[in-house]
Design goal:
- With about 140 residues, this protein is mainly beta.
- The longest helix is centred in the N-terminal third of the chain and has 7 residues.
- The chain has three helices and nine strands.
- The protein is elongated and about 50 Å long.
C-alpha cells in the first residue's frame, strides 16, 4: 500500500499493532481539521507489524503518553517533504489520566474530578502504581 507523500507534519512510527487508534483518540487527532492517515498492521522489518499515524500538520505531542504506550515509538518531523528530525519518547516517570485506578477505596473513586496519577515504580516491567493508593495500573485500565 502506498500513501501520498507528506510535505509538512509528523509521522508517528513503530506504534505497537492495535494501539494506533488508541493514540489517535488520546492525542486528540479527531479534533484536528487536517489530513490524518492511520495505517494498521503495516509490515515492519524490526517488529513484523506496526501501526503508523501520519498527520499533515505540526502539532504538540504528549511524549509521556507516547512513551507509556511504547518507548520504541519514533516521531518523525517532516518539512518540505523531508524528515528533518527524529524523536524518541522515553518511559515517563508519571502519567496522568491515561490509566484509571479501579481500587474502590481509592480517593479517585470518591473525588470524581481528581486526576488519576500513576508513578513508574519498576521500569523493567513497566509497572505503574497509583500515587494515592499504590494500586498497580494495568494496560487494560487505559481509559477510552
Amino acid at each position: 500500500m502506498i500513501l501520498g507523500d507528506l510535505q509538512e507534519g509528523i509521522v508517528i512510527d513503530h506504534i505497537p499493532v492495535g494501539k494506533g487508534m488508541v493514540l489517535y483518540h488520546y492525542l486528540g487527532l479527531d479534533k484536528l481539521n487536517s489530513q490524518i492517515a492511520l495505517i494498521e498492521n503495516a509490515v515492519s522489518s524490526k517488529r513484523g507489524q506496526k501501526d503508523i499515524l501520519k498527520v499533515a500538520e505540526h502539532i504538540d505531542l504528549d511524549f509521556a503518553l507516547l512513551g507509556y504506550f511504547d518507548p520504541h515509538i519514533t516521531v518523525n518531523i517532516v518539512h518540505n517533504g523531508e524528515i528533518v528530525e527524529k524523536k524518541h519518547p522515553q518511559l515517563p516517570e508519571t502519567i496522568t489520566n491515561i490509566l484509571h485506578c479501579h481500587n474502590p477505596r481509592c480517593i479517585t473513586s470518591i473525588e470524581q474530578e481528581l486526576d488519576h496519577v500513576f508513578r513508574l515504580t519498576d521500569p523493567e516491567t513497566k509497572t505503574y502504581r497509583c500515587i494515592y493508593c499504590e494500586t498497580i495500573g494495568k494496560e487494560d485500565d487505559v481509559e477510552m
